[in-house]
Amino acid sequence: MRASLSGALVAVLLVGAAACAPMVPPTPVPIPACPVRQSLTLEPPDLVNFSLPRAVSATGDWMVTSRSIASEPVLSLRATQQGSASQLLGTLHRVGRPSTDGPLVSIAQDGSQVLFGYRGNAAVDTDTQADLYRWSADTHSTTTVPLPVVATPPVGVAYPVNLYRLSADGQRIFWTQSFYEAPFTFQHVMTVTDAVTDAVIAQFNAPSVLFESFVSSGGHQITTPTEVINVDTGVATSLAYAKAQILIQLGVGGNFASQDTSDNGKFTVFARQSDGSGGPAIYLLWNHLAQTLSEIDRGALNLPTAVTDDGRVLYTRVTATSRQILVGQIDETPQVIASGTLLPTWPEKYGPYTWTKSSVDLRTVLYSQELPLLGYRLTAQRCA
User: Fold this and answer.
1) What is the C-alpha to C-alpha distance for residues 57 and 381, in angstroms, rounded to an integer?
2) Rounded CA gap, 314 and 336, in Å?
3) DSSP states of 223-264
4) Mean pLDDT for each 10-residue chunk of the chain (384 residues)?
């Protein structure tokens, strides 16, 4: 198996695709309007026993949160309602991991299954393999997810299989594995499996750059710094033209990087965190069908956390004392949908992206915020 990501995809069905083949995404399903958003306090403020959001189901009806007990994150599942009962899922042990290394978590739409684990990072062939766990509502038990097997492994020493990503909708699991062939010669393979049946959906050679890529909410697209790959067909669409348009339209450079792609493959978000000279961060949205570039927002922005099939982008704006959650879209003023206090004592060791989690359609957003002297409060903001 020696096909590159720009070439053929080795999958359950073998499909050849040219690197520059245009995307033909499905017609987006209209997302219901959200005229009114309501905030709901899910847990009262607490200085010690506070929860951080880890995942939300695609419909927003279910969520997974974590509490730190003996410095270990303990995960629980519950309905996104005030006073709902919690189902204990398990503890993820941080052995040898930095405190900023957050768990990967996803929930099935109906809350019937939860996947959770840490991203693997095998460096030598003797390292242990990454473990992924599955909680099932049918059995009310947690088991280890079986590791996938590479269909046609490269010649050489196989490193352990590692968990890489989970699709936000809980439907797909992404694994990576490296094969050591000679001094400084490695082959990297990515395997995508069905989260319910564990069947292999796709396997393909992956250059090392893929280890810094993004997976769309439903797991149908992979966004790398140079292209967007459709997992189902193998079509790889270059981002070179989009990047050229950034230079032409804005007249500036400054390390614009692709951040994420909508699950239907129609939109890709580009972000510049700074121009290196104190200039503002900028978010841009590229439409692959219309071949158009639109500015979403600029300012003191954090990385995007979601982009929908109809081109809406969820992101956060950070100030010295607060974080705002915003939704930006083409030709619209960004909408602040929630805001919370950020004090110097905010536990940044939990990572910058645990503060906000959103359902795929952005109709439900969970966020934790610090209240002076009272502690941390978990809030849900939902469309009425």
Assistant:
1) 14
2) 10
3) E-SSEEEETTT--EEE-HHHHHHHHHHH---S--EEEEE-TT
4) 34 36 46 77 88 91 88 90 92 69 89 93 81 94 94 90 93 93 85 96 83 89 92 92 90 78 95 68 92 90 83 82 82 82 52 69 85 84 84
